[in-house]
Amino acid sequence: MFIQINRDYDNKYIYQQIYESMKQQILQRVLKVNEKLPSKRQLATQLQVSVNSVTLAYEQLLVEGYIYTIERSGYFVEDIRLFEVDHAIQHTLPEDLKEQVVHKGGWLSLSHMSNNSRMFPFKSWLKHQTEAIELFAKELCELSEAQGPYILRKNIASLIQSTRGVKCEPEQIIVHSTTLGLLEQFLLLQAKDTVIALENPGYARYDQLLKRHQFPVDYVPLDKYGVDIEALRKGESQFLLTTPSHQFPTGKIMPISRRVELLNWALEKENRYIIEDDYDSEFKYKTDNIPSLQSLDYNSRVIYLGTFSKTLLPGMRISYMVLPIKLLREYKAYFNSLIQPANILAMYTLNQFIETGAYQKHVRKMNLMYEQLRTELIKQLMNRFGDNIEIVNIPAGLHFLVKVHTKKSYDQIEQALTKQKLELYTICRFLLQEDAYYLRNRYLIVGFANIDLADIDEALNRFEQALFH
Amino acid sequence: MFIQINRDYDNKYIYQQIYESMKQQILQRVLKVNEKLPSKRQLATQLQVSVNSVTLAYEQLLVEGYIYTIERSGYFVEDIRLFEVDHAIQHTLPEDLKEQVVHKGGWLSLSHMSNNSRMFPFKSWLKHQTEAIELFAKELCELSEAQGPYILRKNIASLIQSTRGVKCEPEQIIVHSTTLGLLEQFLLLQAKDTVIALENPGYARYDQLLKRHQFPVDYVPLDKYGVDIEALRKGESQFLLTTPSHQFPTGKIMPISRRVELLNWALEKENRYIIEDDYDSEFKYKTDNIPSLQSLDYNSRVIYLGTFSKTLLPGMRISYMVLPIKLLREYKAYFNSLIQPANILAMYTLNQFIETGAYQKHVRKMNLMYEQLRTELIKQLMNRFGDNIEIVNIPAGLHFLVKVHTKKSYDQIEQALTKQKLELYTICRFLLQEDAYYLRNRYLIVGFANIDLADIDEALNRFEQALFH
Asked: A–B: how many Cβ contacts below 8 A?
């Protein structure tokens, strides 16, 4: 047997070299099936290595099944088929699948999606994390309950009771890493022909999710109160997905009259439900927060969705769903074997963050800061472009709508924004279905959660270049 | 208008009391539709409160749509329908849905599922987290790439190249919060009648997932080499889900001969793939680790699944999938709009943990500790029950199989274990399909990752009581 041993210090161990070489010789049938191998001592002498090196190599080959041993007779080559190879397979990554690392250096953001980095209280978060590690050492090393730690659900229940008027027991809360994941689970419980109503314009990812699961979708236009109830009645929807606190993306706050109409609509048919996505309701300026739709529901027909993405970090990945009792029973029967997908350290840290009041304090602080940014941005927008824009000024959430009088098409605007390195989205991507009004006019979704006061001027310079030049 | 104001210090603000009271009166039609409200000044005088309190209340009622205003005429009650109420709805949580908080005090664990708490290097983890916060301040405040941060995927790619022989580019890696979630995504890409082969006994959660999505499943029995290739050939499976490094739960290590047969099987039909779940391959005793099946695959027919649940914390919730190039293109076309579900702080901390070598050091340390625990547990099991048990002693992973000579049924064993407060599972829950051999005999899955050396003796006292008394 020919095995070349390289004794350089930085090479592989000698036993590994013997193992590798014999493995290749066996796979390529240089060593024949059932051929007897030299004894360890013989091979050690031949290669001028220690018997121990050969022993380790033989042991590894044995455990992986390259060789077998017969007591008192020695080691033999196993019967291993030849690999079949498809020579047509492409092994190198094609150019179009290579990822470009995008450097966002020099960009400014008026996106509705990101938060202000410098404001996240990492220090306080770390302090509460240390606290969580001390208090929950045992729990952190096990899987949590499938719906998330009970203690966290208890704290979320009392948090949303006091801030959103949501009525629920901890048992009704399901914690998950994404709102979309919660919705997906819920969809898996439904018959495949269930019609689901979405607001249009609305959240495109919901539409994509429904399409992936091939559910029929009824796109419901908005009137001045939000979801157009007459249009909704014309459809056959069993569920309505809506954002009453701050319609995404138009920002409309649904008035009580429409809320009552929707809740009554749900009651008209058995198993009809409203899914309330309360994605950024923590932020409200000038007046108090708008109570949730769930808080008005006396008939258990509202499924409430909340998230910590907007108040903490977009990548925190802790969301939750509050299920009416009847749906909870169905859910548990189906999903009792699920593994909780949210990070356990983040969940227990959040628990401490809420329990000590640090979370509520953080939200208040952010609310003040966002209000200041929002006011300043609107002021500067009006000063500079007053005649050429109309701001849909509804003081809630982290973005507002701006109608722009420009001759540019949406495509041209988007290209110009990219050229100007200004992250800012048009309403186009939220038109789930063509809408003549929004196609005739030009609407932008202007976010203010990730811009510094000092950068507003420069951002608006770019805004001007992109939209009016 | 009658509004009772409570001026106690710890009561609600006066404006909130006015708001609440008027809201109820409007909803209950005590105040009639289109009724004119008193002016702010009038109401303030009547209630003996400040005009400011009334203003705040009116503003809140306005923004929520309870009242409307006509310039120079004042405020009026909106036209709001009456709530319809379903009196049959049950509002209190029924007893059977109440969660019992289980106190695990006094329990000992020989479960295969949990890790040893005291060994997780929280301090080192926190140090790398602080590092991550400094290095990636900007990235932490945005959503990561849908497949996970590129830098983390790059580090995972070189980690699994060196430890598992896995060949891939960072582009081929998809990070996710759960292995089941990755599998679920992959399934959504497949036709609904796709047959999927599962090992039996095997991982029950996979079976539940496939059932939830109504995929036809072919349960393939094991022979001494793992998946029975002849049985597999009799079926019509397009995918095989297998655990070659350490079959779950029997612990078998698949020899190279069977690996070659499986890889050749995959090549026989277009779009046939093997899904390799490498769930605990980091732990191998006596010899080196067994290279992954993916490392032997020259035809891009293996989908590789890995996780950090076993090496770090079960609740870490960071898993990954390595897709062959052809499948990657399909995946990206379908899932490009997904939001990465893993916690962003955990992902960047893990990145630092791997990049600095701390992860590899931790795994080596755990491997040594687990080997010691395993050796001691087996020694004590043999000493005490040598004649009544057979240990399937395959030195890999975090559990091994024990055949017990007892007259007790599986049900009786499980009840007795609970009574003894010993967390330990029988093979029953992993029999995806009835299997005469395992039903005739009594097999236990003995885990050693969450027991202290000092507790082994007491655990085996309970073992004795539960199985032999």
From this structure: 286
- Looking at residue A195, the DSSP 8-state letter turns out to be -
User: Of B83, B97, B140, which has the smallest distance from its Cβ to A171's Cβ?
Assistant: B97
Distance from CA of A65 to the nearest CA of B (A): 4
CA distance B374 to A367: 54
The mean per-residue pLDDT over the stretch A98-114 comes to 84
Residue in chain B closest to A318 (alpha carbons) equals B343
pLDDT at A44: 96
**Chain A interface, best mutation among B22, B63, B233, B309, by max A CB count within 10 A:** B63
- Would you call the peptide bond into B249 cis, given omega within 30 degrees of 0 as the criterion? yes
User: Is residue B288 helix, strand or coil?
Assistant: coil
Mean pLDDT, all residues of chain B: 94
Q: Is A106 exposed, middle or buried (0-12, 13-18, 19+ CB in 10 A)?
A: exposed
Instruction: Please give the backbone phi and psi of residue A344, each rounded to the nearest 5 degrees, phi first.
Output: -70, -35
Amino acid at A112: H
Tokens of B66: 């309870």
Q: How many Cβ atoms sit within 10 Å of the Cβ of residue A102?
A: 9
- Interatomic CA distance for residues A341 and B277, integer angstroms: 18
Contact B90 A325 (CB under 8 A): yes
Q: Rounded to 5, what percent of chain B is helix, strand, coil?
A: 45, 15, 40
In the three-class reduction of DSSP (H, G, I as helix; E, B as strand; rest coil), residue B299 is classed as coil
- How far is it, in rounded angstroms, from Cα B381 to Cα A254? 67
- By DSSP bridging, strand B443-447 and strand B425-426 are antiparallel
Q: Do B346 and A346 touch (CB under 8 A)?
A: yes
CB contact under 8 A, A298 and B89: yes
* Inter-chain CB proximity A80 and B256 less than 8 Å: yes
Question: What is the pTM (predicted TM-score) of this model?
Answer: 0.94
- Give dist(CA B111, CA B149) in Å, integer: 33
* Res A117: pLDDT: 60
In chain A, the residue whose alpha carbon lies closest to the alpha carbon of B178 is A341
Tell me what pLDDT residue B119 has: 82
| Closest CB from A114, A205, A225 relative to B142 | A114
- Do the Cβ atoms of B318 and B177 come closer than 8 Å? yes
Nearest Cα to B171, choosing from B274, B320, B295? B320
Give the chain B residue nearest A114 (alpha carbons).
B142
If you write DSSP's letter for every residue of A207-241 in order, what string do you get? HHHHHHTT--EEEEEEETTEE-HHHHHHS--SEEE
Mutation choice for B interface testing from A229, A256, A297 by most B CBs within 10 A: A256
For the segment A417-444, the average pLDDT, to the nearest whole number, is: 94
Distance from CA of B451 to the nearest CA of A (A): 13
Q: Is the N-terminal amide bond of A201 cis, ω within 30° of 0? A: yes
- Measured CA to CA, the distance from residue B214 to residue B231 in angstroms comes to 22
In this structure, what DSSP letter does residue B342 have?
S
